[in-house]
Amino acid sequence: MLTDYVMEFLAVVAFLHGRDGAMLRDGHLFVKKEALLRLLDKNRYDTAMNKLTVWRGLQWIDCDRERSPGGCRLTVSRSQPSKYGSLCGSYCSS
Fold it and tell me: Is residue 93 part of a domain?
């Protein structure tokens, strides 16, 4: 099951990278929470909110209102390879 979460995280990062509305800065991808929830609703193996909870527990995402008001911060830096292992591949930025 963890593989499903990893693969979806990587797919979301790949999809959002370079799109309007998503901004990459300092190894983090910033995106509006509503847009992220719509993407996460497409794969129905779990609810969007549960996926965010799992990602938050793995420290892949932060939707803290003070740090990223109105949105979420996805960690996509290769500086933390232990978070993604070999599944990270080319989707993670330097």
Answer: no
Q: Which residue has the tokens 């963890």?
A: 2
pTM here is 0.71
Q: What DSSP character marks residue 11? A: H
Overall domain count for the chain = 1
**Per-residue pLDDT of the chain in tens (94 residues, 90 and over written 9):** 788 998 898 888 888 877 777 777 777 888 888 888 888 999 889 999 999 889 888 888 887 666 656 678 887 654 444 444 444 444 444 3
Domain of 6 in residue numbering reads as 2-83
Q: What CATH number is attached to the domain comprising 78?
A: 1.10.10
DSSP secondary structure string for all residues of 33-93: HHHHHHHHTSSTTS-HHHHHHHHHHTTSEE--TTTSTTEEEEE-BTT-GGGTGGG-GGGSB
